[in-house]
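Key idea: predict the complex, not the pieces.
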Amino acid sequence: MKYISTRGRVAPIGFIDMFLMGLGEDGGLIVPETIPTVSQERLESWSGLSFQHLMFEIVSLYANGEIPDADLKKLIQDSYAGFTSPDVLPLTTLNDSLSVMELFHGPTFAFKDVALQLMGNLYAYVAKQRNEIINILGATSGDTGASAISSVRGKDGIRICILHPNGKVSRVQELQMTTVQDDNVLNLSVNGNFDDCQGIIKELFADLPFKSKYHLRAINSINFVRILAQSVYYFYAYLQLPKEKRANGVSFSIPTGNFGNIFSGMLAKKMGVPINQLLLATNENNILERFIREGVYKPEGFRMTHSPSMDIQVASNFERYLYYFLGEDAVEVSARMERFKSEGRLTFLPEEVARIQRDLSAYGVGNDECLQTIRSYKDEYGYLLDPHSACGIAAYERAGAPDAGTFVSLATAHPAKFDEAIRLLGIEQQFPERIQELFDKPQRQTVVDNAKVEIAKQLESFFV
Ligand SMILES: *Cc1c(COP(=O)(O)O)cnc(C)c1O
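Result:
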């Protein structure tokens, strides 16, 4: 299988080249030329497989044999060895129609580990096989940085630099990034906000001589491998459910910011998982909700919420949805993205809005509603949700179709990671040991001004 760009101006490339390219060189997002489908018989034959085995089967459909089976199996085994649950991603039943799939048992306690642990190992593998220098550069509002650092720390042939906004990530997120002592890790703590960090990264990646001189690679969710790895938990959740509960298909409630988590679900559905409703759960930064309900895609009015990992305005994976929505017409995608760039918004026709609503439904959760949901699920089920997972549950309560049958709500972070919000409810929690021990470790980070020149200088002395 080959990979192409949503804007049609990247010559078809293979799996590993696609992985290394990240964002398409024409500014579009990379997608497979055709999405492989899995028959119901084959899907059923996968029930009972471990998460790792299922990951192997699904990645194999996309990897073109570019990675020998034995190597791919080992990469996958290594990637999930650091997850503490024997099921890797355990499914907890709350009531007759609702289950929660916990995606946060990896080393940094957020669902980013599901894809980034694999990507880190894959980068190390490619560095060795192709003798490539891999220098990873990224900006984070907290979870992606911690997870990416954890996935490549101490690995040969790889260096990683992560920018985070000084003082604007949660305490645990900061410690997860800055207590890592390996020499191939550089944390730059920027006097500014997340958008400032992201802006500088974008400028550095757009500076093509700089990008190629320092072999810069990206880890954000524009990388298709991240989407692919995340699609596996939709298969896994479906197959973990008892047969009678999934006979009429399953619906998902999905905390989303960059459209990455939910697009992975759309990919699983296109591949053949019997999914009824895909419910997009977001917070007060509800650009995606307005897109689905009103047919207007327009970033505006940034708000601080209890779920900072979803405090996102421009959803980088939106373009992948648009590509399939427009019948894989790259010319039309390019035209619409040009319009978005010049006008700052995209407006869809009523006929189009009806079609969007057949694919997706949406609900934006208010700050108080988020906390109320944590409170009520703690009281009713003795189950402690983190604020992101609570958005998923609140969306299910408010907007889940009553006839949708079995629902799985995705839990994307461990509550200990967002204790600031949990404490507002007066709830005291016991931290897992791997989080507790962070508080005693020395931190390593360099505080820098929000200035491209200063940051570029830091990179020049760090990257080889
Ligand atoms: C990143 C993140 C999300 C949203 O994922 P997207 O890929 O942006 O859709 C949700 N919850 C948590 C805890 C996250 O870290």
